[in-house]
Amino acid sequence: MTLKIEKTASRGTAIVRLIGRLTVEHLEEVWKEIKPVEVPVTLDLSELSLVSLEGVRFLNACEDKGIAVANASPYISAWMLRERETGKRP
């Protein structure tokens, strides 16, 4: 399974649902979907089954840019936190 991207709108927010696997080859495609959106964006990860290290770093970068990341599985959330903490070390 590869990555499927679904876009919807809800209460002035664009919801971008990522379904399947988020790997390095998908990052540019996801960015192209969210970059031009003029309302707040939420990445819904409820149906994301696998993510690569590059995907985790991408998700952290999205959060740094004010893009909400919602409904991540516990393993993705924990990995994002670990990666963020690792990045802060000198």
Task: Characterize the structure shown.
The chain has helices spanning 27-34, 53-64, 74-87; strands at 3-10, 13-22, 41-51, 68-70. The chain is built from 3 helices and 4 strands. Strands 1-2-3-4 form a 4-stranded mixed β-sheet. The chain has 90 residues and is an alpha/beta fold. The mean pLDDT is 93.
Topology at a glance:
Elements: E1 3-10, E2 13-22, H1 27-34, E3 41-51, H2 53-64, E4 68-70, H3 74-87
Parallel strand pairs: 2-3, 3-4
Antiparallel strand pairs: 1-2
Helix pairs in contact: 2-3
Which descriptors apply to this entry?
Transcription Regulator spoIIAA; 36% strand; globular; 90 residues; 4 strands; 3 helices; alpha/beta; four-stranded mixed β-sheet
Distance between the termini: 37 Å
- Helix and strand element order: EEHEHEH
Our Rg estimate from Cα atoms comes to 13 Å
State the CATH architecture: 2-Layer Sandwich
**CATH fold topology:** Transcription Regulator spoIIAA
Brief digest:
With 90 residues, the protein is α/β, with parallel strands linked by helices. It has helices spanning 27-34, 53-64, 74-87, and strands spanning 3-10, 13-22, 41-51, 68-70.
